[in-house]
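pls ignore typos typing on phone
shikimate-3-phosphate + seq
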Amino acid sequence: MNIILIGFMGSGKSSTARFISRNYSFRFVDSDRIIEKKLKMSVREIFENFGENFFRSIERNIISSNLSFCSDCVIATGGGLPCHFNNIELLKKIGWVFYLKLSFKDIVNRVKNKKNRPLLDDIETARSLFDKRTSCYENAHFIIDASRNTEEIARDIIFKISS
Ligand code: S3P
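k done
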């Protein structure tokens, strides 16, 4: 059984997945890291050299070529991955999908000093992306309050899959 974390950039998907992997018996998987390893480039370099559409096609591809073979994994997904094509429906077949929900204000506070996310370069664009994606994220199996600390979020997720 797999746990899949979705949500906007900076909502804590990777740190929560790492925590779950360290404290419970799940293997850590991160869709962005798989892509970077495959292309031997950072996400920013992929966007700059090949554009967003190319990145989305790689994301789509790794769902079937990597994520669908996961077993007992906790998977952190890139913020846009579930919202392109019908990816969220594919994810829901691979495992329990959790939306780590956080307000836009909290997100901006968390990511303001990090420069590794091309889609956060312009705050107005990021805001409209956030609004557009909310209804997609809400199709997750579970919606989790991500304003709490990592341990509380992880415990909530484990509780939900065990009950
Ligand atoms: C993106 C989120 C990023 C990364 C890429 C695009 C998005 O992942 O996949 O920069 O479209 O929201 P994180 O959510 O892990 O930052």
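The mean pLDDT is 95. The radius of gyration is 15 Å. more later
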